[in-house]
Amino acid sequence: MKNTKLLTYTLGITAALLFSSPIIASESHPKFNTENAALYGKQLVEYSDKVLHGWKDEVVAGKMYLYDQQGQSVLRSFRRVGLERFGKGDKSIIKFTSPADIKGVSALNYENSGSSDDNWLYLPSTKKVRRISGANNTASFQGSEFTYEDLNDLDPNEYEWEYIEESQLEIDGQMVTVFKITGWPTYRDTAYSRLTLYLSKEHWYQTKVEYFDKSGIHLKTKTSSQWLSFHNNYWRSLNVEMHNHQTGKKTVLAFSDYLVDLSQYRSKRTGKIRDNLTEAFFTKRALTK
Amino acid sequence: MKSTESNIKNSTGYRFAKLLYQWRWLAATVVLASVTVTFMSGMGNISRITQSVLSISDISHGSGQIAPQVFDPSLNVWFDTGDATVKAYFDIEERFIAEDTILVTFENTRDPMGVFSQDSLATIQRLTKNFLTVPGVRHVRSLTYSPWIRWGEINDGIAAERGLIISDLVENPATDLSEEDIVERMVAVLGASQTAKKIGEQRVRDYLGQDADFKQFQGEPLLLDAIVNREATATAIQIQITRPNIESEHTELIKKLYAVQYQRAALRGVEHFLNIESGLSVKTNAFRKLEQSVAALPSSDKKSKLERSLLDPTKNFIQDLNGLQVKKYHVYHQSEEGSYIDVADANNPINAPDNFSPSALSSYQFKLGGVPVLERNFEVVGSADSKYLPLMFVVIAVLLVILTRSFAGVLIPLVVVIASILGTVGTIFATGTLFNNLTAMIPNMMTAIGVADSIHLVAAWLLMRGKFQSKAELIMEVIRKNAAPVLLTTLTTAIGFYSLVLNDLAPVKQLAWSMATGTAIAYLLTMTVVPLLLSFFPNKARKNVSKTGIISRYLATKWAPFVIRHRIKTVIYASIITVISCMGLFFVQIDADQRKMFSANNPVILDLIWIEENLGGTGDLEIIFNSVVGDNIQELTQQELDILDELNTRKTAASLSITDISPPTTSELSQLRTLQQRYQDWTQARIGVSPEFLQQVEAFEYRLREEMAKPDSALSIITDLTSPLDILKKMHQVQNNENPAFYRAVNNSDVAVSLRQPSLDFDEITEEYSYTPPQTASTLASQYYLQYENGARPGETLSTQLSIDRRHFRMQGRGLLCTTQEKLAAIAKIRSIAEHEFPDLIVTSNSPEAIADLTISGKKTLMDRTGVIVAESFSKSIVVALIVILIVISLFFRSWKLGLVSILPNVLPIAIPLGFFGWLGIMIDGPAIAVAVVALGVCVDDTIHFFTKYSRAINSGKTVDHAIAETILECGDALTLTTIVLIVGFSTMLLSSFSPNYLMGILAVSMIALAWLADFIVTPAVLATMNMKSNDAIQSISGSITDDNISHLASR
Lengths: 289, 1052
Hints:
- Helix content of chain A is 16%, strand content 45%.
- By secondary structure, chain A is α+β, with helices and mostly antiparallel strands.
- Chain B is an alpha+beta fold.
- Strand 6 (128-133) of chain A pairs parallel with strand 4 (161-168) of chain B, so a sheet runs across the interface.
């Protein structure tokens, strides 16, 4: 375990150092229409969505700290395996690794572009995989401050956008330039009236998102930090915090052991280059193992 | 005579009076200026506090202004912090979630499907959606918007498949529901049998199948009797309002004040949507115009802010683009005559246009309930009562005109009273404290003290007017005669109030020091401002002297001899009455019943009663189970947990002969055992997933429900119980084909034998072996919870009922409106059931090894109990005050005899009314008892004035009977005047429709009246009995009282 972690970090940091001014991200974007705030906003989000894709698959270990109002926390660890299906909706498996009483609980998710997700859940205590259908988007992810809506990739076509301004934001102790863009969701199953994105001007990822509830009140803020670039292109945040301003609760997701694009790594057992995952892996059967 | 005069002139009293008179301008200016400065600084504080509250966020109705914040809403200050129930309640607020529920209910008896009719469901859906947009609303639970957990066909996504569904009961527009859809939901909520009763068996069979077993469809316990009644004729929308989470730095007080305003704003928002639904809120033309001009603005942050305030349901006023205030809606209310009035601006109601009739979206009559509604009702009714204070002043002024027939006699007491109130209230606010339920009575209390202090000076002045050569002489004499007794009455009153400091309760302490300070302020005002004001009036003899002193003269000549003649009988009767009353004190019920506090036609109470009859209780009851095992067990660190997992993996690998993993060494095995043991101990502490605990709680809940169903049980006031067990049972049932037999807590037989062993799987992704621990009922419970949380809306999160570490388990009950004592009896009953039948659930000396320890509380219960606590602490303090005052009297008059004599007249006025209530079984609201302290103050004042004059007469060589007669002659007027003024003043409280205030009025009036009777009947009788031989002659008195005598007395 430790070695993989070290390797990932080394890889990531090396990548970050070598390509400290990413070519793709900052220089090759199309000409944006800066006259029309709605169009400009949408173009920025669309570009950010497009420029970050192509990672194929990924594996990551996550620690989810659920904090209550008093700052006491419990920890749930999981591992997430994801498959990128650009334009069709990604597939993923989340498997809990701690605490012991939920260890082995795993969830299979198919994002379906344009319609609701498919979900299956496996409980080791019943040894059964069940198709589940929840309140979907607005349901809480495992009792955390994140809802599925917050975790799913945001579809630029499902919002009305508006570019607000360019501003400065402190991330990891450094001031970075961001595009501030407001989005009004146009899909039905949402908990929000609007959200404000802060897109990194340099790397195009979302450094911060503010969520406003149906009454227009600032409900939550998601802050992502400790950004690492993988293979020169794919930025991943190792620390994502979701702060609920109405309840004072907080959830922190700390990621480690990232493998982005498995074909970039060697197998620990055989030493050979690993294969990318295929859709065949993301089946109900995979949950039980 | 000469020598007496020079004696007088050399006396301290005279020198003091002279000094005071000479410096009256300076003294009065200094005192008045101090009062003014204190008051101004107090009001400055209030405005700062109000501004701070507003600075957190604008919770006004749109004007950017809220009423000055003078009332401290803190609940915790009423309790001793060591109190277990209180601690439990504040633990709940911290550990789970602090929120209140507003209920919006309506009835549908006209549609065959009742509130499941398409029209009703559409209304519920529309309101639910609207309520969710009200700031402060965390969640709404209604017939359309509550989790519907079931096993069924999942159609979305790529392939249809059966699975576990958690959805809203009505997801799509209610108007799209087919009849079958509705029957399906009726069966899900009401159960098959109830649905059959409602719409006929055939229609249910059409949906379920002809041979369906109705017993398999039990309905949804979480909704039944709470969101909808069994007959499906009444439904509630539960609106959960959070306490705001304030992120900026503020004092606790500001945060609490803000929380109250925040909740009020949310309530306004809810009412706004109800008014729209009923067609009573209609957009103003100005608002329509503003909407159009905002829509025409180019997109910007400013525009979205404006759009938000256009929609904000908590604000009915908004600034237009030019910064002018615009009223958004006409808010029409129907008056009793049937006409409509626009009450959008409460201070300026406007008649609706003649042709107005509401065009309602639905025809239902909505009824509101819940603690926030009740709390506001208290405030509304309470503030309606504040209008009685000015009325009290008017009544007092009129009385003073009648009784003194002099301008000075009206002006001076009123100046003293008003200045005393301003000074005292100013002192409270200036120290940064606000009114609480007790100190809010200070204006009334200070009125009594101010009147009592000043009237003695005014009465003496009226009596002696024209009998002195100069104005100065007259006023100095007035001061000289009254300085000592007024100082003494001030001292005893202050001591009386200050004795309350012995109390543990902060609000009582606050009352104590505020009133002690207030008493001092009243004294200073009396001794400085009164002489100054008197000096403005001419020293002219009254045209008709006999008019003054007419009461005294009658009392002294007719009354006193009569009393003295019957002194023994009087003392005996008085003693008997007092003893009987004191016995009655043991039966006094300190209790409160909110149903009876308001007038019979109070709409809020009528709504609440309807809601409770149809949908169960609206009060909260909290039964919290806390794990007791875990306190001395150290939770494993994450690192230890990782080691445990690794060692388990290696041990299991060894047992499965997997060779590429090294087996644990002997020392590692022993480490594994230690860690495993500690882990198991810790798991035991997690009661929320412990099968033993869950089964016990299930049985406990069943037992409580059994009691709740008995009409004569103390628990019959509880109408509903919910806990995380409901969700667990439901998940278990759904996982098992919806078989009702599985609607129960999980046990180990629910886990297949093959799963009770640990297992090891190779993980292709991590290329490592992954260990799965043995599965148990406990892991099953954990996984069910996780499964639920994964599908439920955040508003339905388990964490409001079960702490995330699973060590605190919350059972919530709903209780009917009832008396405090009934609530306390219910709590005692629950405890006793736990202690005797479920020793595992409560730690006592008999069950020290319990799994969990339960505590019972509830916000409403706590609020009610404050009354009882206050009453108890007051009773103790009054006894202490009485003793201290008697000692002071004995010391002052250097006579233990007088001290003893004063017991009867001081105890009697307090004991009789309270004892009477006790014997009659009338319940007394706790804070009303506070008035007894004021009554005691008045009694003692009367006694001291009486004794001062009496001892002066005795010291000048008078016989007892003559001394009594003279005393009465001298202070009869002042005491009678004070008594009449206070009685009439306090009887304005009898106009109140709020029964605690009414009761306080009754107690105050009767105690003050009795104090007068005690001093004019009992005190003379006791003095006479103790000092006279039974056959002493008394007939000489009437002859000795003449007009000459009066002037002689006056000049002495």
